[in-house]
């Protein structure tokens, strides 16, 4: 994803979105009905309703805003989320679970971008396994594991809501500015296209002076470019996934 496309997403998308999750009404062979946040396993889907635990969730779960640039499906509320998430600095609490995050805001943001797809994949796998056991008439496993992963998802979502609009534009801009400064310095201090001799001494002297004056600034810009390169690459890799709809891993 190029810089222009990313910038367009950051500026052009709204910071809110509608509930996209669906509640599936499943009917087994005996006619018994139940509702699930994933499609019915190998059964007819009798009815689909808006998911009560979606973005317009009950106050218990707390609504999560959309994030400009991320597809809304990544910000849906997990159906098994039973607790409200509260964060203070690098510590977030959800029910009895505590999640300690990096002290540096940039690290928290990038980690949240990296973690969210993996957490949703784990959540879908646990949901699928639990529903399959239910349909097979087996004793359902404890939902504690699902609830914990749901809490982890919500923690990362809250971090993205807070930090994505705050840090991403500057992160992209800082890296671009560093590269642009290096480019302009190199263009401004071009080596003279004349032989280095007495007749051209003034041109070569001006070139050397230009290089000396720009040396320190260019060095700092190069260092900044190196520091922001990794973060910039992580951001672009994450956005390549998160700007697309969340995959259906429920089957």
TrEMBL record:
Endpoints of the signal sequence: 1-21
Keywords: Signal
Positions of the DUF4124 domain: 13-48
The protein, known as: DUF4124 domain-containing protein
Annotated source species: Pseudomarimonas arenosa
């Amino acid at each position: 994803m190029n810089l222009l496309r990313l910038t367009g997403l950051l500026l052009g998308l709204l910071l809110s979105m509608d509930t996209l999750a669906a509640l599936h009404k499943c009917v087994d062979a005996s006619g018994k009905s139940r509702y699930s946040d994933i499609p019915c396993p190998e059964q007819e889907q009798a009815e689909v309703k808006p998911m009560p635990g979606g973005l317009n969730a009950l106050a218990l779960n707390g609504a999560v805003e959309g994030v400009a640039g991320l597809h809304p499906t990544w910000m849906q509320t997990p159906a098994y989320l039973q607790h409200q998430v509260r964060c203070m600095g690098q510590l977030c609490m959800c029910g009895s679970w505590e999640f300690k995050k990096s002290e540096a805001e940039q690290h928290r943001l990038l980690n949240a971008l990296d973690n969210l797809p993996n957490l949703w994949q784990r959540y879908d796998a646990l949901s699928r396994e639990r529903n399959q056991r239910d349909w097979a008439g087996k004793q359902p496993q404890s939902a504690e594991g699902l609830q914990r992963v749901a809490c982890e998802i919500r923690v990362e979502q809250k971090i993205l809501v807070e930090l994505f609009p705050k840090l991403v534009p500057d992160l992209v801009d800082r890296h671009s500015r560093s590269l642009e400064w290096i480019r302009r310095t190199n263009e401004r201090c071009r080596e003279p296209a004349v032989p280095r001799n007495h007749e051209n001494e003034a041109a070569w002297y001006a070139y050397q002076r230009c290089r000396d004056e720009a040396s320190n600034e260019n060095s700092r810009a190069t260092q900044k470019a190196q520091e922001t390169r990794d973060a910039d690459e992580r951001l672009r890799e994450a956005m390549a996934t998160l700007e697309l709809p969340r995959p259906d891993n429920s089957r």
